[in-house]
């Protein structure tokens, strides 16, 4: 899967509210994964961004979040998801936070694309009449593995 944007961000844990630095990768299929390092091999978790983001707040709009020690409030991002979850992130600069916000909002509204090894290009997979997209994976990450069928429901 093609990488749309990658970079280091601070992520606040949901339980203990501690900040941890992770490598984030936004993939063309609309998923945001976070990893221990930039090799993107050891994934901690992933969030489906595609059609799942309610809104994104940055900087001073993130009233209920304190940035990591030594970081500016201008770099804060709060990603509010439709299922009620929140992802609190912090970029190094205000410009970097704005670039991440733009990329995430675009991934939220962009159609799912999958790689077709037979035609050697990424093809759009439109949702069917039931608002579900069936994606069959031929290769590994970011999907579970060969032969796995994923269902994305809007």
UniProtKB/TrEMBL annotation:
GO cellular component, one term: membrane
Name of the gene: PLEKHB1
Membrane keyword on record: yes
Domain of life from the UniProt record: Eukaryota
Keywords: Membrane
Pfam families per the UniProt record, alphabetical: PH (PF00169)
Domain PH: 2-109
InterPro entries: PH-like_dom_sf, PH_domain, PLEKHB1/2
Compartments where found: Membrane
Name by which UniProt lists this protein: Pleckstrin homology domain containing B1
């Amino acid at each position: 899967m093609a990488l749309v944007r990658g970079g280091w961000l601070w992520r606040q844990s949901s339980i203990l509210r501690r900040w941890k630095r992770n490598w984030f990768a936004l993939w063309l299929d609309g998923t945001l994964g976070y990893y221990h390092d930039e090799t993107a091999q050891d994934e901690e978790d992933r969030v489906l961004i595609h059609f799942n983001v309610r809104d994104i707040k940055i900087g001073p709009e993130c009233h209920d979040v304190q940035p990591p020690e030594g970081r500016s409030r201008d770099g804060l991002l709060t990603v509010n998801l439709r299922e009620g979850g929140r992802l609190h992130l912090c970029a190094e600069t205000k410009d970097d936070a704005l670039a991440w916000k733009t990329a995430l909002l675009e991934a939220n509204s962009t159609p799912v694309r999958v790689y077709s090894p037979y035609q050697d290009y990424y093809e759009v997979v439109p949702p069917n009449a039931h608002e579900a997209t069936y994606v069959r994976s031929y290769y590994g990450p970011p999907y579970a593995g060969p032969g796995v069928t994923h269902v994305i429901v809007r």
